[in-house]
Amino acid sequence: MQILERGRRVIRTEAKAVADLADRLDQSFEMAVQLILNCEGRVVTTGIGKAGAIAQKLAATFSSTGSPALYLHPAEGVHGDLGVVTGEDVVIALSYSGESDEILRLLPTIRRIGPTLIAITGVRESSLAKAAQVILDVSVAEEACPLGLAPTASTAAMLAMGDALAMATMEARGFTQGDFARSHPAGALGRRLTLRVSDVMRTGEQLAIVSSSDCLLDALSAITKAGAGAACVVDERGKMIGILTDGDFRRAALHNRDALEHSVMDYITRNPIVIEGDPLAAEALAILEESPRKVGEIPVLDQEGRPVGVVMLKDLVRAGIV
Questions:
Q1: With a threshold of 0.90, does the pTM exceed it?
Q2: One domain for residues 259 and 300
């Protein structure tokens, strides 16, 4: 079989295995979600081999979405690590055959400790399934492996079932974006979820502000001193009434060589795009990207409409928001 055709067949086989799960979800899935929601301890996932790798991922997903979880290696479990399991926990054991020796050796002790056991397996009559209070069926019609040996479609189904369980639990728990941000403070994702406009905006001497009574030369001087690309024009009360950009200066100079002596009011852009309050920096980026004017910076206004800072695209890039 040609390489591309084999690749396509693998993807189609795994996609079908995952899609078939949706029609098989039943009250057992709902029961599993409720058990996790009502769990007073932790979610403990376990599995060996490929299923173990998925169990580790599932524990990480649960932990980051509001359900404290940990992964228990079954071989280490029978050598003392079962001590982390309590009667208030929910144990999710993953084994496609349901007969993995390492998993089965855990069952007598798990039964004595007393946590709720959820089995994610492809064989409903397996030893693991018979020991569990809830069975989540991940059986597949065929593996995507041309030899029918390497776990492929079955692991894809197992992973999808685990994610479905975690996401349904997260939604039922009412887990919010803010909750998610608290457990993801680092990396690009953390910055997008936590960094606010006030963290990245330029203020003080880096903010160019001129009065409506000033001339273009005054505005140019303020922009140069601030190292900015525009100046905020304010009225006598300090409220912003417009903006002067580098482009405005160039157009004014091309139109009239004496423009620098003219009032800023002759050249300002009224009703510019602004940010009010202190939203996420990612929201400021979206405003910049969606602006039909293709601006490179946006003034930030307080509740009174006075400019208190400016957010620049290059600063958002430097902060890792983009």
A1: no
A2: yes
